[in-house]
Structures are given as structure tokens and as C-alpha cells.
Design a protein that fits this description.
Distance between the termini: 82 Å
Structural class: mainly alpha
Shape: rod-shaped
Helix content: over 70%
Number of helices: 3
Strand content: under 5%
């Protein structure tokens, strides 16, 4: 019966990192999708800039200013997302090492139990850091969207003010 209890403890200790690995994996997928959206948005802005550059009003265009601000924000977002992905992949690696460490400690008579604990804590910290970066990137995305909405509102107000519609 004692062996069953030990086995249950070991499996429990190995499952906890597995749940965090699953959470990290979900965040990796979400972050990769967010990065893809940033890349897609940059491509749209590049096309807009090319079309706008062909017009005579390129230098004074409010759209040009918006594109510049958007590109700056997108650059920052891409770098943050890259860092978040690195943190999340680090978390996954450390948490996998934690599970392996728990298994090895059970099989091998080594008197130290702290390595998996340290690996688990480091993995959890990396997951937390990745999450903090994603919150930061989300705030930048909202700020950028609000900037674009303000630009569009200005166009709508300008259109109303000109008596059209």
C-alpha cells in the first residue's frame, strides 16, 4: 500500500507541471496568432503607404502620420511578442525538465529533492513573465486601435462637416 501511495505522489508531482505545460502551449498558440496578425497588419500598412506615396499629398497626409504611428506600435508589439514566445518556450522546457526530474528522483536514490522544485519555480516564473509581456502587448494593441478609431472618427466628422451625406 505504501508503494501505491508513493506512486500516486510521484504521478501527482509530475501532473502539476504537465498542466502548466498545457497552459503554456495554449499561450504559445495564441501568441503566435497575435504575431501573425501584427505581420498581416504591417503588410496592409505597407500597401496603404505605397498607394498614398503615389498621391501628391503624401507629406501632409494625416493618413501618413497614422501609418507611421501604427508602424512604430507594430514594431514594439512584434518585439514584445517575440520575447513572450521566448519566455513561454522557456517555461515549457523548464516544466518538462521538472517532470523528468521528479521521475528521475523517484527511480534514482539521490538525496536531493530540490532540483525539480527549482526547475518548477523557474518554469512558473517564465510562464508568469510571458503572461506579463502578453498583457503589455495587449495594452499596446488597444492603444493602437484607439488611435486608428480616432483617425476614422476624424474622417467621418470631416465628411459630415463638408455637408456630404
Amino acid at each position: 500500500m505504501a508503494q501505491l501511495s508513493v506512486a500516486a505522489e510521484v504521478l501527482g508531482a509530475m501532473i502539476t507541471p504537465a498542466l502548466l505545460i498545457s497552459a503554456s502551449g495554449t499561450l504559445v498558440i495564441s501568441t503566435s496568432n497575435r504575431l501573425s496578425r501584427v505581420v498581416d497588419r504591417v503588410r496592409v500598412l505597407a500597401r496603404d503607404a505605397e498607394h498614398l506615396r503615389e498621391s501628391a499629398a503624401w507629406e501632409q497626409s494625416p493618413k501618413r502620420s497614422l501609418i507611421e504611428r501604427q508602424l512604430n506600435a507594430l514594431s514594439e508589439r512584434a518585439l514584445i511578442l517575440r520575447s513572450a514566445l521566448a519566455a513561454l518556450y522557456t517555461a515549457i522546457g523548464l516544466l518538462v525538465a521538472t517532470s523528468i526530474g521528479v521521475g528521475l528522483l523517484t527511480m534514482l536514490p539521490w538525496g536531493r529533492s530540490w532540483p525539480p522544485v527549482v526547475l518548477g519555480l523557474l518554469g512558473s516564473c517564465a510562464l508568469l513573465w510571458g503572461s506579463v509581456l502578453l498583457v503589455r502587448e495587449g495594452r499596446l494593441a488597444i492603444t493602437s486601435t484607439l488611435d486608428e478609431m480616432s483617425y476614422v472618427r476624424g474622417l467621418v466628422d470631416e465628411h459630415r462637416g463638408s455637408g456630404a451625406g
